[in-house]
Amino acid sequence: MSEYTSTDAALSRDEMAKLVAADIPAGAFVNLGIGQPTNVSNFLTTEQGVTLHTENGMLGMGPVATGEDIDGELINAGKIPVTELPGASYFHHADSFAMMRGGHLDVCVLGAFQVSQEGDLANWHTGAPGAIPAVGGAMDLAIGAKQTWVMMGLFTKAGESKLVEELSYPVTGLGCVSRIYTESAIFVIDQSGVTVRSTHGITFEELAERLPIELIRGA
Amino acid sequence: MAPRIATSAAEAVSGIHDGSTVLIGGFGNAGQPMELIDALMDCGATDLTVVNNNAGQADAGLALLIKERRVKKVICSFPRQSDSWHFDEAYRAGEIELELVPQGNLAERIRAAGAGIGGFFTPTGYGTMLAEGKETRVIDGKGYVLETPISADFAIIKAQRADTLGNLVYRKTARNFGPIMATAAKKSIVQVSEIVAAGELDPENVITPGIFVDTLVTIGGTK
């Protein structure tokens, strides 16, 4: 873990994705969730040698397919046509989720509605009356990988913190999130609590004031 | 016994009767046995329980079965999509039952049925509303939920190629649920783009052994 740092400006989405990509260990097997996390793949370097997993049944997923490379039978979990890289493999759904549940993936990056200070994740269902629930692989992804990282905006439109003491949205997985990347700060969650690794466009003191949980300033 | 080779999709699904539980392969459109679903639509069977990752997209396949209220229950992981309007309408009208299952648990429940497993403890879903009412257990300090197998009367799936003994190979991510669904149904009906003579598929490359396949039908084109 790098030293505590701060920047004057909040992070853009690309900057967040770039930081996540830089933190992924070389040679890792990684699943990038739908939405913001997908953007991380644009910042992974060839030297990192990261292998991407898509839970519909492929390792070695390449970039989004364009033009003649579009093949309806080669899609990612977001149902977008993608490409295969040399050394790719295909497998059925039970194997794909065994890979995940069995702890064989190193990192999974997901979006979130809320994360609690204990690392509980809410990202599958708003719980709103009348909302049709759909879970997909969210619960498997949350608890399956060796490390689960979240990318999200730190505050709701109403300005409330999405890093909370206890979830108010329905749970996706308990105690599973170990890092959170937001535009305002990057957090690490472990037994010692929630540590702020960096702040962006906000000071540690201002952050501590706005969040409803106790924060540890990174060394 | 070697599988029956049907001459049409209609003939292939002709045994599917009212009240059947049907596993339907596919993730999105990849691997979706569209022609078999259309034939199921035409054969008139109703009161179906359908197991699929989704609950139909746009105005095709499973979505049409739901539109015509031929499906009483859907067991799936991701019903709500931008183009799942037929499911959404049936669900909001209270005219279809939904059993929502996390995707990996769905796959493992199907696999368990095919493998003769009576149930399994999975960490996925522990502590969530999808585990409510289910038996849980803490094993070595970690919470697990008891999930039960999903077996079915029929599976309708799509593979790329078969031999006359029912051995199957698939293509890219269209494989998805096919291999496990083939194992979990009393009768597995498979559409392929080509049926070759036994011996023409490399045995090392067979993904679904023919023992799991009951009916084959050739449908032109793989995409």
Can you tag this structure with a few keywords?
heterodimer, A: 219 residues, Glutaconate Coenzyme A-transferase, eleven-stranded mixed β-sheet, three-stranded mixed β-sheet, 4 helices, 16% helix, B: 223 residues, eight-stranded parallel β-sheet, 22% helix, globular, 3-oxoacid CoA-transferase subunit A (chain B), transferase (chain B), CoA_trans_fam_I (chain B)
Oligomer: heterodimer
Number of helices of chain A: 4
- What is the residue-mean pLDDT of chain A, rounded to a whole number? 96
Biggest sheet architecture of chain A: 11 strands, mixed
- Coarse shape of chain A: globular
Name given to the CATH architecture of chain B: 3-Layer(aba) Sandwich
The computed structural class of chain A is: alpha/beta
Net shape of chain B? globular
Helix-strand topology string of chain A: EHEEEEHEEEHEEEEEHE
* CATH top-level class of chain B: Alpha Beta
Count the beta strands of chain B: 14
Name given to the CATH homologous superfamily of chain B: Glutaconate Coenzyme A-transferase
The SSE string of chain B, one letter per element, is EHEHEHEHEHEEEEEEHEEE
Would you report the number of β strands of chain A? 14
Q: What does this entry look like structurally?
A:
The complex is a heterodimer of chains A (219) and B (223). Helices cover 16% and strands 30% of the residues of chain A. Chain A is built from four helices and 14 strands. Chain A has helices spanning 13-23, 93-101, 138-144, 204-210, and strands spanning 5-7, 29-32, 51-54, 58-64, 82-90, 107-110, 114-116, 121-122, 147-151, 163-164, 177-181, 185-190, 193-200, 215-217. In chain A, strands 1, 2, 3, 4, 5, 6, 9, 11, 12, 13 and 14 form an eleven-stranded mixed beta sheet that branches. A three-stranded mixed beta sheet of chain A has the order 8-7-10, with no helix packed on it. The mean pLDDT of chain A is 96. With 223 residues, chain B is α/β, with parallel strands linked by helices. Chain B has one domain (4-118, 149-218): Glutaconate Coenzyme A-transferase (3-Layer(aba) Sandwich). Chain B has helices at residues 9-12, 34-43, 62-67, 85-92, 103-115, 178-184; strands at 4-6, 21-24, 48-51, 71-76, 97-100, 120-122, 136-139, 142-147, 152-158, 161-163, 168-169, 185-192, 194-196, 215-218. In chain B, the strands form three sheets. In chain B, strands 1-14-12-9-2-3-4-5 form an eight-stranded parallel beta sheet. A three-stranded antiparallel beta sheet of chain B has the order 6-8-7. A three-stranded mixed beta sheet of chain B has the order 11-10-13, with no helix packed on it. In chain B, strand 7 (136-139) and strand 8 (142-147) form a beta hairpin. In chain B, helix 5 (103-115) packs across helix 6. The relative contact order of chain B is 0.19. The interface between A and B is large, with 41 and 51 residues.
